[in-house]
Design goal:
Length: 375
């Protein structure tokens, strides 16, 4: 009889957590020795009302009071205590009754920290405890991801493993450095070069290509980024992906129709389910620094230009990647143009950005699946 896996995530705080969970489930389902591998939303299962409240609070804070959200995020130890005590007690009872007793998993993996402490409490109280895995889906680790009942931590980089050991006293035997799981399609897409991808997508194979995206929600000041890109003197091939933000796509379509004399090749797309094609085709990817977005671009060796990181995890991701020289950060539209001009000279000269190799982990999902199957 094979192993039973349960992957618990949340999607209301951005799609990256779900994408990492889907990547892992896809690899597990393709492996032998797996009886089941199910993906579930933690709050969606335990408390749909709390899910909606959390989503409203999170999105509202980011939209209306980013500095306040940054201060809240920096007090992570205080908030993680609330998740580890009263809220965890209540959620653990709900998850045990609604999910764990029905599924009887051998391994439970969390790609979002909200229900992690509740799962840890449930593990301690169940008759047949499961192996609990924490997978932080960013390039940093905070208190939310750590609990004494966690058996394994899968982190994005060796530096994060050192943080777990130094700051949280996690034993080295519990730490696996596999990377942030990305879907198998991203691993495979990296085997083709950029001109080949551009030709396959009907783009000019030789033009310097810039991709702009703000995730599924089309966030990150895409319109002002585009306004700056069109001021670049040398012709560019610009692809803008607006995600599920239909209002933004309409605005950009209208602007393009009213600006017929662009020197650049401009393509505006809506939601793209196969983003690996467009990231593979790009010489530079301008985006918001969500953990999974960065991991996908790194897997495809596409240089990242991170624009206006949001408070919290996005600023931490940006700081990590900039420190490791694996991405650049721009806080104004002018900085985008200046960075692009510098990079264009380097990239057109066929110079590799060697630092990307030191942080990219395209095999993360497969290696994690293999490790879990071998427990």
């Amino acid at each position: 009889m094979g192993k039973r896996f349960l992957v618990v995530t949340e999607e209301w705080a951005g799609s990256g957590h779900r994408m990492a969970a889907e990547a892992l489930v896809e690899e597990l389902c393709a492996s032998t020795g797996v009886d089941s591998a199910r993906l579930v939303g933690g709050l969606e299962t335990a408390s749909p009302a709390l899910r909606e409240l959390s989503r409203f609070f999170y999105l509202g804070m980011l939209r209306l009071a980013p500095p306040l959200w940054q201060r809240i995020y920096e007090r992570e130890q205080l908030w993680s205590t609330s998740l580890q005590k009263p809220l965890a007690w209540w959620l653990s009872r709900k998850l045990t009754r609604e999910l764990l007793k029905k599924e009887q998993p051998d391994v439970v993996i969390a790609t979002h920290a909200y229900c992690l402490s509740a799962l840890a409490r449930a593990k301690r109280e169940m008759d047949a405890p499961f192996h609990l895995v924490s997978i932080p889906t960013d390039f940093h680790v905070n208190h939310f991801w750590v609990h004494p009942q966690i058996d394994t931590y899968v982190v994005a980089h060796e530096q994060l493993g050192e943080v777990l050991k130094r700051d949280f006293q996690v034993h080295a035997d519990k730490i696996q450095v596999h990377g942030i799981p990305v879907r198998p399609a991203f691993r495979v897409a990296g085997e083709r070069d950029k001109p080949t991808w551009r030709a396959a997508l009907g783009l000019s194979p030789e033009m310097f290509t810039v991709l702009v995206s703000g995730g599924e929600g089309g966030y990150g000041g895409i319109a002002e980024v585009l306004q700056e890109l069109v001021r670049v003197q040398e012709p560019l091939q610009i692809i803008v992906v607006t995600g599920k933000n239909a209002k933004l796509k309409r605005q950009l379509d209208d602007w393009q129709q009213k600006t017929p004399d662009l020197r650049h090749h401009l393509l505006i797309r809506g939601y793209e389910s196969q983003m690996w094609q467009w990231i593979s085709a790009a010489d530079v990817y301008i985006s918001k620094p969500g953990g999974i977005t960065c991991a996908e671009a790194l897997a495809l060796k596409t240089p990242l230009l991170l624009y206006k990181p949001l408070p919290g995890q996005e600023r931490r991701n940006s700081a990590f990647l900039r420190h490791n020289q694996a991405a650049a950060v721009a806080n104004t539209p002018m900085e985008i143009r200046e960075t692009l001009n510098r990079w264009r000279i380097r990239l057109e000269g066929q110079k590799e950005i060697e630092k990307i190799e030191q942080v990219r982990r395209p095999e993360a999902a497969r290696q994690t699946a293999e490790y879990l199957l071998g427990l």
